[in-house]
Amino acid sequence: MDDAAELMSRTSLHSFELDGQTWPTVEHYYQAMKFDNQTYRTKILNADSPEQARKLGQARLKRKRVDLKKVRTTLMTRAFYTKAKTYPMVATRLLETLEQDLVENSQFDYYWGCGRDHRGDNHYGKVLMNVRNKLRQEAAETQN
């Protein structure tokens, strides 16, 4: 993984504060927010790695929040935006992508990624592009 991809990854070890907690990664935050159960959220928050957080977030026997499909993109956007605002190097690298289409090149994820056949929804790429647009807008407003 190159430096830019690492900085923009939801699994990079760039902790940030959001919703009254310090989250080790975007992945930890997103996986925890899938659940209303505060005890289970804390378990995910304290997971040793992003991979462990993802595994806990995919638990089939745990009840996920009923509005997850409506809010999942918002949750991911909030987490990555907060990461970018916390780490200027992340924001700078994202802004350096200019107008490029950003694609989450995941063979197995057709929601967040492009999928094996590149016909997936690429919502993570869209999250990155939306955050990039928000950062540009904020930069333009501070210049005026």
SSE blueprint:
Elements lengths: L2 H6 L7 E3 L2 E3 L2 H7 L5 H8 L4 H8 L10 H19 L1 H8 L27 H21 L1
Antiparallel strand pairs: 1-2
Instruction: Specify the helix fraction band.
Output: 40-55%
Number of helices: 7
Tell me what portion of residues adopts beta-strand conformation: under 5%
Q: What is the oligomeric state here?
A: single chain
> Between the first and last Cα atoms, what is the distance in angstroms?
37 Å
* Major beta sheet summary: 2 strands, antiparallel
The SSE string, one letter per element, is HEEHHHHHH
Which structural traits does this protein have?
144 residues, mainly alpha, two-stranded antiparallel sheet, 7 helices
Description:
The chain is mainly α and 144 residues long. 53% of the residues lie in helices and 4% in strands. It has seven helices and two strands; from the N terminus they run αββαααααα. The protein has a two-stranded antiparallel ribbon with strand order 1-2. A hairpin with a 2-residue loop joins strand 1 and strand 2. Helix 2 runs antiparallel to helix 3. The chain is globular and about 50 Å long. The mean pLDDT is 95.
